[in-house]
Amino acid sequence: MGEDKKFSPLGEKSARIIAEIDKYSATNYSPYPFVVEKAEGPWLIDPEGNKALDFLSAYSAILSHRHPGIIKAVEDEMRHGSDLVSRALYSARFAEMVRAVTRLTGYDRVLPKSDGGSAADSAISGLLMHGHERGIKNPEVILTKDYFHGRTWIFASNALFDSDQSFRRLPRAQGIVVVDNTLEAIGKAINKNTVGMFLETHKGEGGPIFSKKEFLVGVKKLCDVHNLFLGLDEIQTGLGRCGYIMAWQEYGEEARPDFVTLGKALGGGIIPVSAVVGTEEFMKVYTPGSDGSTYGGYPIACAAAVAALKYIEEEDIPKKSRELGDYFVQKLRKEIPGIAVENRGLLIRVELKGVKTAEHVCQEMLLGKREPRIFMKHGHYDKEKDVAYTRIAPPPGAMTKELIDLAVENTIAPTLKNLK
Ligand SMILES: Cc1ncc(COP(=O)(O)O)c(C=O)c1O
After folding, report:
1. Distance from the alpha carbon of residue 242 to the mean position of ligand 1, in angstroms
2. Cis preceding-peptide flag for 372 (omega within 30 of 0)
3. pTM to 2 decimals?
4. Residue whose C-alpha is closest to residue 73's, from 404, 240, 306, 266
5. Residue 148 annotated among the catalytic residues of the structure
6. Which domains are seen in the chain, by residue range?
7. Which residues have C-beta within 8 Å of that of residue 172, sequence separation ≥ 6?
8. Are 60 and 265 in contact (CB under 8 A)?
9. Residue 234 Cβ contacting ligand 1 at under 6 Å
10. Ligand 1 within 6 A of CB of 235
11. pLDDT digits over 184-233, tens only?
12. Which of 28, 29, 56, 59 to mutate to test ligand 1, by most ligand atoms within 8 A of the CB atom?
């Protein structure tokens, strides 16, 4: 496969926009050369009118681009409600948001934030603060290898999955222990300083890698035996994408963590909304001043979240993701014999054997000659297995069997079959 071939922008206007961003933006991303001017349902549209199916969904955040119900709720709040109200006062929309989130998740309390990284960061602070309450001088939280919980210092400096990432040069934040993804390794790491664990139910950025029932239930048992808190990061996997409101629910109440982090789809792809959501016992650690944020839980964010949750429930997004995800995987297996794929709902892992990176393959689907164009982002390369991962995560609310057929038959299958 000609991995050196570079793909060009699809037109002059696109090229100008890309040149401007490349000149003035910080260089912390390396985007594919496709410019989005408009987004609608499952489609991304560039200034030249080229359309691409969005199979990344902003890292699983999008249910359907520009959903009219969520836009209306945000517009109504902006026109007739209020703008920024800090948590120094109460607001009616915040009441609606915490009511909806607790009802849907079965937890007691909600700590609102904006981006996923800061909710995950608050989760770690909560765990470490519990450690201090227990009289532990140097409390520890266990994470597992290949995690992704956002780019705050505590996570970036402890990250292990991608040796090419420059954030490994950061001085390492204390309080985190990173171990292998096995019950044995986790069990061994538990000591008198351990307060809890924080894991993704299924790893999104590091794979996707799907946890088995024995693993998650086993982790929960270890936590019970050693009196530790279990937090699960559902920022990518939650709110329907994996077929459940929270992906751990696939394994029943035995897997129920003490708290979850939610984000991404919680803002309906329109406003950044995230949260730590947990039991009374865990959440009581957040005393006044110990956490907070100016925009966390402000009325416009809450209006977006309430509308997004309403949409998820009314359209039964979990069921839709389960059915369409399974259909997608069957279709891939039928059209590409021997393909290695696994899914939970509409979070689908594709393994490309003997390919050093899936970047070129993904760019070809987006910028090559086939229609429909498809945007999916390459994942990381596993040296030991000689496998490049890529993830398919379409917007569940905008997907149909017809679109899946079209995408697999016309673009994905012909591109992947050509690899050999
Ligand atoms: C599981 C998980 N946690 C946290 C984050 C960070 O979210 P954000 O990019 O909104 O900070 C991500 C983002 O991909 C994620 O997948």
Report:
1. 16
2. yes
3. 0.96
4. 306
5. yes
6. 12-66+317-417 (3.90.1150.10), 68-314 (3.40.640.10)
7. 157, 158
8. yes
9. no
10. yes
11. 999 999 999 999 999 999 999 877 999 999 999 999 999 999 999 999 99
12. 59
